[in-house]
Each structure stands twice: as C-alpha cells, then as structure tokens.
Specification:
mainly beta, three-stranded antiparallel β-sheet, CPXCG motif-containing cysteine-rich protein
Length: about 55
C-alpha cells in the first residue's frame, strides 16, 4: 500500500507487527498522517480490494 499523502510504501508486515486491524486509525510511519485502510472482499475488482484513506478529524 502507498500513503496517499507522502506516496511512501507501507508494508503488510509493518501493519501486522503493529497489530493494526482494518478500519482502525493509525499514523503513517513516514509522514505521521493519520490513515485508515479497508479490505473489501469479493468485489468485482477481485477477491480482495484494499483502500487506504486519510482520516479527517
């Protein structure tokens, strides 16, 4: 995945190490922007489609 703000890669291994679940807010490890990711299963885009977004306070 790529952060929408800084465009740096956020790896699945980092998310697993930090125990971050889908729909849970977290800070980008590169730019500290607050983000959230969502996993949509069984869509027309494939078995799983991941969307990452910036969380507005």
């Amino acid at each position: 995945m790529r952060c929408p703000t800084c465009e740096k890669h956020i790896g699945w291994d980092w998310l697993e190490d930090e125990c971050i679940e889908p729909n849970e807010a977290f800070d980008c490890p590169h730019c500290n922007e607050t983000l959230r990711y969502e996993v949509d299963e069984g869509t027309y885009l494939g078995a799983q489609h991941v969307t990452i977004e910036v969380v507005d306070d």
